[in-house]
Amino acid sequence: MKLCVFQGTFNPIHNAHLDMAEFILQNYGFEKILFIPAAAPPHKDYDVKMAEHRLNMVKLAARNNPRFEVSDIEFRLSGKSYSYLTALELYKIYNIDGKINFIIGTDAFEKIESWYHSDDFKKIVDFIVFVRENNFKPERFQHLKEKGYNFQFTRMPFEDISSTELREKIRLGQPVDNLVPKIVEDYIRKNDLYKTE
Questions:
Q1: Structure letter (DSSP) for residue 23
Q2: How far, in Å, CA of 155 to CA of 55, rounded?
Q3: CATH code at position 64
Q4: Model confidence, pTM
């Protein structure tokens, strides 16, 4: 199978995440998008208590699309949630045709060389890089191509939703109905999340 992975903190998952995943399905011929919420993100401060909530919200957001699948693999692996180690496990679980395709934004991809075992990671995945800025200059990434990173850029018209700004809206009690799925918004309200940031 051709597998495309969408890994992230998803704190919380929002409509732009879902739109990106749907865009990839429609334009790249994958059978499914595998959402992988990071249990213990290595590059971010995180609240251990929130990890299970983040996983639950991704499951809720994805449940009505049969081509979206959610994996708790990083919750079953001990230690920090390193993408390289996760990818190695995925190759054991799935019968993957070619390489895993890995969705990433330009902001994160710029820092890819700082990732855990990046030189090994680049050998086992192909990157689909979402352009997230205007006046994009692809030559900024030429050095990564020369170092053996296999990637392609893609862009789509969508509102670039900031999870940080979204959490602040929730904290202030502002409406977020056009930013997250209703079922996720209900979960956030029911569990009183993001009230103390």
A1: H
A2: 26
A3: 3.40.50.620
A4: 0.93
